[in-house]
Amino acid sequence: RAKSAGGNRAELADPEADARAITRHGLTTALPTALERGEFFIEYQPLVHLGDGSVRGAEALVRWLHPQHGVLGPDRFIPLAEHTGLIVPLGRWVLEESIRQARAWRERHGGQCGPLRINVNLSPCQLGHPGLVQDTVEILERAGVTPDALCLEVTESALIGADDDLLKPLRRLAEMGVDIALDDFGTGYSNLANLRRLPVSILKLDRSFTQGMQRFPADPVDLKIVEGIVSLAHSLDLAVTVEGVETGAQAEQLRILGCDTAQGWYYARPGPPERLHDLTLVDATG
Ligand code: C2E
Ligand code: MG
Ligand code: MG
Ligand code: MG
């Protein structure tokens, strides 16, 4: 009976799916007011140079402090925001807020600790939005921050099969000095030769590779794969960042393999911006 009544009826027959749908629906309708009310906030996770352990920058990760459900991670609401288009104003807010933060860090350090960069995630919808380049330029200018302080992270899957129209804004930004990183690299069905076509300067190796380095010494096949990616990346003048480093053994293994920068719980969990003020240099060499 449920089946013949169509998709909606079939869902009502499953109370759990129904509850999920209600939450999804509730969250979706609450998104616009959440942005107006300032319920979103950003946590920052440091990016650490594997060679000398210095903090080179941080990735901005958005969260939603929902009045009823508490803190929600991006996996709960980014897909909904993408679906409704709210990702465009939300993404613009994230960019503006994190650039403002980058400026505050730079001022605080008086340029003494090298450039502190901010990594901001970009969803495919933002990439296709005509205002992207102009918004970014304006936000940087308003904050008095140079483009080299910004790295935009785009997932590999967002760029697979991307035509030139989609790549054009990224090229423009790259020409201005904004770095483009290919996020979650290695999870899609990427055509490695395709890399040359993309205006990226950084590969962010997905956490699944880092997981293979859990034990020391790591699985030799995992080592070979990462070694191959690193050597290909470096031969194309791309830097390699690794995500999800949770142990010192992983950090050491990835450093030996030639990865440039690392990010993960071993160094710091994502946290409030003040956390980066006093972050001491981590000895990443073991
Ligand atoms: P991502 O860009 O790949 O971000 C890395 C994710 O790995 C973050 O999850 C981070 O908290 C988590 N992580 C960091 N270190 C470790 C570790 O050592 N171990 C483990 N197990 N996890 C670690 P988070 O914050 O839940 O973000 C999930 C995804 O949501 C991000 O993946 C990104 O794709 C997306 N996202 C976050 N903020 C934004 C945003 O402002 N805009 C857009 N479009 N997407 C965002
Ligand atoms: Mg990212
Ligand atoms: Mg990533
Ligand atoms: Mg990832």
TrEMBL record:
Domain spans labelled EAL: 24-284
Annotated protein name in UniProt: GGDEF domain-containing protein
Full-protein positions shown: 427 to 712 of 712
Top-level lineage group: Bacteria
